[in-house]
Amino acid sequence: MSLKAQLDACRSEYEANAEPHVLDAVGRSVRTLAETRLIARAVKAGERAPLFRLRCRGGGFIDLSDLLDRGPVVISFFWGDWSSFCVLELRALAAALSEIKRLGATLVALSPHARGNSSFPGSDGEPPFPILRDRGCEIAGRYRIAVTVPQRFRAAYLAMGHPSSENTGSKAWVLPIPATYVLDNTGLVVLSYLDADHTTRLEPTDILVALAQMRAAVIPDRNNR
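The structure assignment produced for this chain is given below.
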């Protein structure tokens, strides 16, 4: 089943079970975000990706410049594993990971919230790729996709599962627009995807197509040297 089909099913189930006032507030928040035109100002294909260095869950740091030294990089910004839509996206990315690696790329994901261990099947629930904590959406801000949830919509986000400020340790209410970036090994964004509607995400097959095209462009160049 495609990621879109899974997201559509998730959205239908959510709409069938959520309180009407919550659905209305979430819908208005999506429309409000679209009206800000933040999407148009975000980092997009053709731009250089901002670099970052973040501590990883097991200790140490992951530096984007180091990853780029190895080849292309896929970056996923998501809300957190409190969002069913984000969990579906992460699982779809995990399923595509072996092919992403075969095409010479590295996958990392960034979220402002601490992650639980329930997002992935297995004894420990650990993901097969790094999920990095982007505190306060500092990195998302560099990509121009950080959004402060307006006060009037926060109760609806709590109903969707957003952690309370007591659990997050932050009162900022800043989230990234869920987004995916595919970078070549120079840090150039060759594919970008983001939408004001948080229930839509990039299909992993589109990521694989972009990586395959990059790989095909590089191999002839090497053969002609």
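Interim note for the steering committee: The chain has nine helices and nine strands. The mean pLDDT is 90.
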